[in-house]
Structures are given as structure tokens and as C-alpha cells.
């Protein structure tokens, strides 16, 4: 059973998400929070597998709450799935840097939202396509591009760099296997090794590493 905490300042939305989560046979809601501070406190208390985190909340926003949850050894195993109304939310990059494992829009179809919770709970990262584009645009927009950090990629093989590049472009394991003519098991092994070597929590963090090290260059769309 995947245990979920719902953090949103709108009671109606929290209730809707709770009904959706609790109707799934493999998911259950353990707590609700109306502010970022409550989300942090309740995560420490209930140790959920996944927090559905709104970005804009009073007292403490979802970015800071995510940073505290992911940065606290007592709650670091909890995955944070950011939900927002805005597909061009300026906090996308900040949320991922804070440790969020996923980022979806609130108008995501219910079935897709439940799938996202399961994916994030399993240790994978998940980004909506529009969010991936926004993340790339954020790098491209910066007046001073991030300096390459080649030492961060020490020990990463040429093949793993190829896989990391495709992960950064939003390809799934199946798509990467097809592109590189590899078995799905082999791709999963490469991704697993990348997560270990780069000390990344999940695929979302691998995207960040790929751009920050200069392995992948962002281009304005």
C-alpha cells in the first residue's frame, strides 16, 4: 500500500485528491496539510511514501517544504510530487533542485495522476512533457549558462553518457532502448548505475545533472 500525504491550501482540492487516492486499491491517504509548514511536520509524523505538494501555499511554499522534507535525513525517503495549476510555473527548476521527484499539472487526468504517484513511489522521477520543455527553457533563458562541471561525470562511461543525454531529453527507458538498440534490461542497468554514480535521487535529478554539467546544451524553443 502506497501511503500519500496531500498538501494544498484549498480544502476542496485536498478533498478531491483524497477521494481519488483512496479509491485506488493500492493507495491510501495518511494526512492532509493546508500549508507548507504543516506538510513538513506531518511528513515527519506519518512518514508517507509520497507527498502531493502544491507550490503556492501560505506560511511556507511548496518549494521550501520540499527542500526541508528532502533535506532531512528523517524524511529523505519520502518522494515529493509537485502539482501546480501553471504549466509555465517559474518554480519548476527550483522544485527539482529542492529534491522533487515529479512535477505535474493539476489538470492531469485522474488515471495519469494515480500512475504518477505509483511511478514516483517506485523511485522513478516523472516530468510532464510541458514541464520538461519549461525546464530546458529555464536553462536556455539564463544570461550566464551554468558552468560545465566535468568532474561530476568522472567515472561515467561513454554509453552511460549517451543514456544520460537521452534521459535529459525526456525519453523513457523503452524509447532509449529502441534508439540505442539495447535491451530494456540493459538500459535499466545503465540508468541505475547513473543514479548511483551521480548521487541522484531519480530521473528528474539526472535531468538536472545533464544540464548543469554541460553534457546537454539547452536551446530556446
Can you describe what's shown?
The protein folds into two domains: 2-138, 3-Layer(aba) Sandwich (Rossmann fold), CATH 3.40.50.2300; 145-212, Winged helix-like DNA-binding domain superfamily/Winged helix DNA-binding domain (Arc Repressor Mutant, subunit A). It contains ten helices and six strands. It has 221 residues and is α/β, with parallel strands linked by helices. Strand 1 (2-7), helix 1 and strand 2 form a beta-alpha-beta unit. Helix content is 49%, strand content 14%. Helix 7 (158-168) crosses helix 9. Mean pLDDT is 83; it is low at 143-149. Strands 2-1-3-4-5-6 form a six-stranded parallel beta sheet, with helices on both faces. It is globular.
Instruction: Estimate the strand proportion.
Output: 5-15%
Question: Looking at CATH, which topology of the largest domain would you report?
Answer: Rossmann fold
Could you name the CATH homologous superfamily of the largest domain? Answer: Response regulator
Subunit arrangement of the protein: single chain
Please, what is the average pLDDT? 83
Largest sheet: 6 strands, parallel
Question: Can you tell me the CATH class of the largest domain?
Answer: Alpha Beta
Question: Percentage of helical residues?
Answer: 40-55%
| Content-based structural category | alpha/beta
Q: Rounded to an integer, what's the Rg over CA atoms? A: 17 Å
Shape field: globular
Number of helices: 10
Number of separate domains: 2
Spatial sequence of strands, sheet with the most strands: 2-1-3-4-5-6
Order of H and E elements: EHEHEHEHEHEHHHHH
Distance between the termini: 41 Å
Low-pLDDT sequence parts: 143-149
GO molecular function: DNA binding
Domain Response regulatory: 3-121
Domain HTH luxR-type: 149-214
Keywords: DNA-binding, Phosphoprotein, Transcription, Transcription regulation
Amino acid at each position: 500500500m502506497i501511503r500519500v500525504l496531500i498538501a494544498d491550501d484549498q480544502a476542496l482540492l485536498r478533498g478531491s485528491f483524497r477521494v481519488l487516492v483512496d479509491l485506488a486499491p493500492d493507495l491510501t491517504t495518511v494526512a492532509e496539510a493546508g500549508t507548507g509548514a504543516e506538510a513538513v511536520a506531518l511528513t515527519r509524523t506519518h512518514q508517507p511514501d509520497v507527498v502531493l505538494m502544491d507550490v503556492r501555499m501560505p506560511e511556507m511554499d511548496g518549494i521550501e517544504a520540499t527542500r526541508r522534507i528532502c533535506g532531512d535525513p528523517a524524511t529523505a525517503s519520502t518522494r515529493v510530487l509537485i502539482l501546480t495549476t501553471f504549466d509555465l510555473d517559474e518554480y519548476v527548476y527550483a522544485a527539482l533542485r529542492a529534491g522533487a521527484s515529479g512535477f505535474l499539472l493539476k489538470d492531469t487526468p485522474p488515471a495519469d495522476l494515480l500512475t504518477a504517484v505509483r511511478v514516483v513511489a517506485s523511485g522513478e522521477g516523472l516530468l510532464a512533457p510541458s514541464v520538461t520543455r519549461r525546464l530546458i527553457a529555464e536553462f536556455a533563458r539564463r544570461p550566464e549558462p551554468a558552468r560545465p562541471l566535468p568532474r561530476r561525470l568522472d567515472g561515467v562511461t561513454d554509453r552511460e553518457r549517451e543514456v544520460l543525454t537521452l534521459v535529459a531529453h525526456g525519453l523513457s527507458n523503452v524509447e532509449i532502448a529502441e534508439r540505442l538498440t539495447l535491451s530494456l534490461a540493459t538500459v535499466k542497468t545503465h540508468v541505475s548505475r547513473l543514479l548511483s554514480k551521480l548521487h541522484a535521487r531519480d530521473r528528474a535529478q539526472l535531468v538536472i545533472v545533464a544540464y548543469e554539467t554541460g553534457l546537454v546544451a539547452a536551446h530556446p524553443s
